Amino acid sequence: MSAETVSTGVLSAVSIHKYVQSLASGRQLPLTQRTNLVTDSHPELEIEGRTYQADPWTNVPQSILSLVPRRLHLQPAHPVSLTQELIESRFPAPTYNHHNELSPVVTVAQNFDSLGFPADHPGRNRSDTYYVNKDTVLRTHTSAHEADIFRQNASEGYTISADVYRRDAVDRSHYPVFHQMEGARMWDRSKVPGGDIAKAVWADLARMPKHDLEVEDPNPTVIPERNPLQAEYHSLEEVEAVAAHLKRSLEGVVVELFSKAKQAAAAANGPDPLIHEEPLKVRWVEAYFPFTSPSWELEVFWQGDWLEILGCGVTKQDLYIHAGIPNHIGWAFGVGLERVAMLLFSIPDIRLFWSQDKRFLSQFTTVDNINRYKSFSKHPACYKDVAFWLRSSSSSAGGGLRSNAQDFHENDVMEIVRIIGGDLVEDVRLVDEFQHPVSGRKSLCYRINYRSLERTLTNEEANEMHESVRGELVKKLGVELR
């Protein structure tokens, strides 16, 4: 253990800071020091001033813990915070309370149980979720706070903006920390005049701003076999009203965002016929989400293609019942802030959001001055392959343990590459798989693209990282290198 890690086993802020600074600057710590940061075992974790006891479930690496304080949605003049600000502006106080500083450390009960996740849901696996310990995780979605906010019942609506954490693929559109925003609006049967929810919702809708979007919404609100009414709790008239209010609210968000995007495109390149001659239009597509029914996805026609922006629906009544507000009915939506920001600012690589390079950050100022991102560098890729045999038998499970062909999870490979290479890895792709016809053993080959956003990597640097990846694959997953 390094001298910068205190003897009690609490993660050293100095060690974490050095690790992050090495990745952000494009410099790599010496291999031995970097490996210690990855592999040291700590009986306790310190996160935002609180200490948590580690246990065999603990799988959150220091590289992820080091990103917790960043909270890009609160960083002034950052593309993520500007996107959040634009969306939030469509949900004004006092109708909506805004929750932007909730702790990312939540209980398993908050993250999964309160939302009705079954015990065998794959989202609970260590291969998908960062566990602080058996009972505590880094939230995987903003909905981890939903039941608590419903229970508080402090306003008719709310939004939550927050950083969320998932073990995921390594590519230009996925990152283990990203930002979500969710919102909800509720009506209380015991408070609306005469208990007439539909009439109250339609009255609220009549007071909302109108827009001139082209809207495609060909399907009925309820489709019994695919997008059903919660008939035990809601009437069709109520759901028709709630759905109309939801859709008008979110169509207003599209107007706010993509009007700005059109202005930014014109300022950057002059009038683009593909953007400026096409009308701003959206379409509603029936969908399935575990927390709403009926449910929809909202798509926007942008630069000649339909793009999914967000998901939404009429909130499942069980959530209100379990939160102690059974008389409520309402809607909810969720949106990935990076996904929208990449469209709004034309940012091509999700790693850029975490850059501290002034050449990136100085391009963004306020919501009144949305700029398209201008690339300040393009450095060559360095591709390296790693091939290995999976073990033929084991009793272990995914999520960082030694794996065989049955319980191997690709996210374990991705996590090892992220820990070693950080933001110096652009993507990881499975390029070949083979099963031996006699032994039945399975072989996989992954291609890793080492490419910095800020400078040219030397082959020696890439080789050092790649050898470290190979070693960690053997050590953590028990594979046999080919």
Outline the structure in words.
Helix 4 crosses helix 11 (337-345), helix 7 (197-206) packs parallel to helix 8 and helix 13 (410-421) packs across helix 14 (459-477). Helices cover 30% and strands 24% of the residues. With 482 residues, the chain is α+β, with helices and mostly antiparallel strands. The chain has helices at 13-24, 31-39, 62-65, 79-88, 108-111, 146-152, 197-206, 236-269, 273-276, 317-322, 337-345, 358-361, 410-421, 459-477, and strands spanning 44-47, 50-53, 96-99, 105-107, 131-133, 136-138, 157-165, 177-188, 214-216, 281-289, 292-302, 305-315, 328-336, 382-389, 425-435, 442-450, 480-481. Mean pLDDT is 87; it is low at 1-40 and 394-403. It has 14 helices and 17 strands.
Our count of helices gives 14
Strand content: 15-25%
Integer-rounded radius of gyration: 24 Å
Helix content: 25-40%
User: What general outline do the C-alpha atoms trace?
Assistant: globular
What would the average pLDDT be, to the nearest integer?
87
| Uncertain residue segments | 1-40, 394-403
User: Helix- and strand-based class?
Assistant: alpha+beta
Strand order of the largest sheet: 3-7-8-13-12-11-10-9
The profile of the biggest β sheet is: 8 strands, mixed
- End-to-end distance, in Å? 31 Å
* Total strand segments: 17
Assembly type of the chains comes to single chain
